[in-house]
Amino acid sequence: MGQVYSQQEMIVQRNTWKLDRKKVVFTNGVFDILHRGHVEYLSKAKALGDVLIIGMNSDASVRRIKGSLRPIVPQEDRAYVLSQLANVDAVCMFDEDTPLNIITTLVPDVLVKGADYTIESIVGREVVERAGGSVQTIEFVPDRSTSGIVETIVNRFGKK
Q1: Are the CB atoms for 70 and 32 separated by under 8 Å?
Q2: Cis peptide before 71 (omega within 30 of 0)
Q3: Which long-range contacts (CB under 8 A, 24 or more apart) does 98-105 make?
Q4: Across the strands, what pairs with 28?
Q5: Tens digit of pLDDT for each residue in 89-143?
Q6: What is the pTM of this model?
């Protein structure tokens, strides 16, 4: 299990892993209402290297991207739960709308996103490829999403 790092702490830890010749995988997202799709995705991401770092959108970032009703789970709780998953080595929050700054700072060996992205559209691709790393996509588990969970809750309990 991993831990939650500040960006400064994450830089130091990334340098340690680099010196130890660990292959670092990076992915990012909101991870609001953790579900099976998230866990399977992170397991596949971890299999691509030695260390898995998750860049997680802060609450402010999530509100700008997904609207004022999200996130449902506060950033501290999301980060803690993610850090406790067996395949996760590190979680680091970012406040921007995209993870470009953190990717540029950490320069992972492998950058991963879901297959709903094209390789060309993945933020940070150029940074990772320029450093000799790779960018990959992972298929999602069908019918597993936070939006789907929220919709189910509203449909079942939102109407009286």
Answers
A1: yes
A2: yes
A3: 98/123, 99/26, 99/28, 99/55, 99/123, 99/124, 100/124, 100/127, 102/7, 102/10, 102/28, 102/55, 103/26, 103/55, 103/127, 103/128, 105/7, 105/11
A4: 55
A5: 999 999 999 999 999 999 999 999 998 899 999 999 999 999 999 999 998 766 6
A6: 0.91
Q: Which H or E run contains 148?
A: helix 146-157
Residue 135's DSSP bridge partners are 111
Is 152 buried (19+), middle (13-18) or exposed (0-12) by CB count in 10 A?
Answer: exposed
Selected from 3.30.230.10, 3.20.20.60, 3.30.1780.10, 3.40.50.620, the CATH number assigned to the domain covering 3-157 reads 3.40.50.620
Mean pLDDT of 75-92: 97
Going by C-alpha positions, the residue among 145, 68, 74, 75 that lies closest to residue 153 is: 145
